[in-house]
Specification:
The protein is an alpha/beta fold and 335 residues long. Helices cover 42% and strands 20% of the residues.
């Protein structure tokens, strides 16, 4: 049997590449095609770049850290530089919601990376915009860009989004996941509303008219304001790895992510893989860390299977050794 392993990473636990490698080992002698995916959040850079360079920058709380720029060949003689916000100002980098300061966290680190990316004189720039610890509306990013008098729109720049949230809604939708309590959510939302007016005055753009400008706590809106084009992160990845063709050439598709819930069908990896596979009449097995039972029923109704590590092995064991468990589970369901 020919199997496609088309996984997103399990946030903070396993990368998409690690899952693919484990399934290749566990499912022998089946032929496993590894196709790691991302929707613009954590793991985006690892999935797309051919090579990397390290760049000194700062995390969401202003602490010195090392980020990466990725490079990918683009046509004949061209090069695309790839950035990932989750690697630099990511929530994982500050220790999750518990370690974050949601009011102080800002996006300066992405501007530092972009500054170095522009020095490389690329043909194009692609930024994976998700998984961040910030809700600053891109203020740190814009402040740094203006101070350094940088004009990123001289290079075609595309922003790969993993959400559809609009700019002023970023605080309400995402700030609680980043450690903000109700009073802080109110403060962050008020700041986004003020910044919304500021962007309109200085850049002549109403960010709430554009889907996805709330990505990375509003950084998506700031990037749009300075000349970037917004795009679906999943679609950007899928086109580059020729996902539709790869699905057409296999007998079974395996996909998954950390949690299967309603957001999985809002442009995220699992929902999009299911849609593509169904359009080609392919069977899908979804393996996730945990699930929302209502969503599982929806997938079952379409004739696909869902398995959650936490349901089958318990939460403690699932967190302790998830790669091994994915391999064991895949062996039992792929026949």
């Amino acid at each position: 049997m020919k199997v496609l392993a088309a996984f997103d990473g399990f946030k903070g636990t396993m990368s998409a590449k690690a899952i693919g490698s484990e399934l290749s080992r566990a499912l022998s002698p089946h032929e496993v095609i590894e196709c790691p995916l991302s929707d613009g959040g954590e793991g985006f850079l690892e999935v797309l770049a051919d090579r990397f360079v390290q760049v000194p920058t700062v995390d969401a709380l202003g602490r010195a850290c090392v980020g990466r720029l990725g490079f990918r060949k683009l046509g004949i003689g061209g090069v695309e530089v790839i950035l990932e916000t989750a690697e630099t100002i990511g929530l994982t980098q500050v220790g999750g919601a518990v370690g974050n300061d949601p009011i102080r966290a800002d996006s300066t680190g992405v501007a530092i990376l972009l500054e170095e990316a522009l020095r490389q004189r690329p043909t194009a720039i692609l930024i994976g915009c998700g998984g961040s610890a910030v809700t600053d509306g891109g203020l740190g990013f814009i402040r740094r860009m203006r101070q350094r008098k940088l004009v990123p729109c001289d290079v075609p720049m595309k922003i790969a989004l993993d959400v559809r949230t609009r700019f002023t809604q970023a605080g309400i939708v995402f700030a609680p996941q980043k450690g903000a309590v109700s009073k802080e959510v109110e403060l962050l939302t008020a700041r986004l509303l003020a910044l919304h007016a500021w962007y309109r005055r200085w850049y002549g753009i109403d960010l709430d008219e554009h889907v996805g400008t709330g990505a990375a706590g509003g950084l998506g809106g700031a990037l749009l304001a300075v000349g970037a084009v917004l795009a679906s992160g999943f679609e950007e990845v899928a086109s580059r790895v020729q996902l539709s063709r790869q699905i057409s050439e296999v007998d079974l598709v395996l996909t998954g992510e950390g949690r299967l819930d309603e957001t999985s069908f809002d442009g995220k990896v699992v929902g999009q893989v299911l849609t593509l596979a169904e359009s080609q009449g392919k069977q899908v097995v979804v393996i996730v860390g945990s699930t929302d039972s209502r969503v599982v029923e929806r997938v079952h109704q379409h004739g696909h299977r869902v398995y959650a590590l936490s349901d089958l092995f318990g939460i403690e064991r699932s967190l302790a050794n998830p790669l091994q468990l994915i391999g064991e589970l895949a062996r039992s369901v792929v026949t």
